[in-house]
Specification:
The protein is mainly α and 173 residues long. Helix content is 62%, strand content 0%. The longest helix has 19 residues. The two termini are 32 Å apart.
């Protein structure tokens, strides 16, 4: 209960110092709506749902372009990347819930890649960048998965490979 109160207080603090005015009850409802989305998934016991929910809420406020993605799509992305395993490490070295590579973690100023809040905020900051660059949900997700260089090359060629297209199946609802 105490932890949840802190989350609501921090959300309120962020909103008060942003350009949008949102009531504390609306903040509370939005965070609860995000938390309800978790009921659709089988989750590991060590996943901090409150931290992930607040990271999503906070990112929606800071990066409005992310609103092109539903909460379900963001959670589907996390599931696809790490199966909600906070401590996931890929063969290529990507870490945490959103599978951030070391250089990306540094570029997105992620303090602790194994901290749910920091990792999701960093991953969503990067997704916001890609969404702004491409102005397209699918291209942003393709780039999140395969990298901007590869996706730009495939855009110029006029054809996206099947392995990249398969990646977004199950993410977009």
């Amino acid at each position: 209960m105490f932890k949840q109160s802190i989350i609501y207080f921090l959300a309120l603090f962020i909103i008060l110092f942003s350009s949008q005015e949102i009531s504390s009850s609306l903040i509370s409802n939005k965070i609860k709506d995000i938390q309800l989305e978790f009921n659709k998934y089988s989750l590991p016991k060590n996943l901090n749902i409150e931290d992930v929910s607040f990271a999503i809420f906070d990112s929606y406020q800071k990066y409005p372009i992310l609103r092109m993605f539903s909460t379900a799509e963001i959670l589907n992305l996390i599931k696809k990347e790490s199966s909600f395993n906070t401590n996931a490490i890929s063969k290529k070295g990507a870490k945490g819930l959103m599978q951030l590579m070391p250089l990306m973690s540094k570029a997105m100023r992620v303090k602790d890649v194994f901290n749910s809040y920091h990792n999701v905020r960093g991953g969503l900051k990067f997704l916001a960048y890609l969404s702004t660059k491409y102005q397209d949900k699918e291209l942003a997700l393709y780039s999140y998965y395969a990298g901007e260089t590869k996706v730009n090359k495939y855009i110029k060629q006029g054809k996206m490979p099947t392995y990249i297209k398969k990646y977004i199946k199950g993410i977009i609802v």
